[in-house]
Amino acid sequence: xxxxxxxxxxxxxxxxxxxxxxxxxxxxxxxxxxxxxxxxxxxxxxxxxxxxxxxxxxxxxxxxxxxxxxxxxxxxxxxxxxxxxxxxxxxxxxxxxxxxxxxxxxxxxxxxxxxxxxxxxxxxxxxxxxxxxxxxxxxxxxxxxxxxxxxxxxxxxxxxxxxxx
Length: 165
Prior knowledge:
Layout: E1 2-3, E2 9-10, E3 13-15, H1 21-34, E4 41-44, H2 49-57, E5 62-64, H3 67-72, E6 76-79, E7 82-85, H4 105-109, H5 112-120, H6 124-150, H7 154-164
Parallel strand pairs: 3-4, 4-5
Antiparallel strand pairs: 1-2, 6-7
């Protein structure tokens, strides 16, 4: 197990370091073969949706990464169609939701044009709204993956989502 600096005990294994993207899945599979199956595997520093899907497939249970918040500060939004740079001029008069079907409060209450305006005006609210959206996107992806695993349909979920991300 790993002792966290907050004094709490994590009864599993932290996996991380400097994986090359092309080697991550292979390395995870190799490491997970030798770790006790009943212990959770926490993967450090993985935040791209496609990397999360690969990590889940390779046996990782939990993750943490600054990527969703870091890219939000630069106006980059995670969507099922890939990253959206909301600061681009094409969104200046786009009053649609950031992502159709997203249930986050940003998508519910604000348009692409308004969020772009906030970024261009350097309003602090822009960073908060973008972060809310990105975090909800990641939580929704992992939750959907968990549901697919429990329902026995993870291979089809993975194939479908690899095309999106």
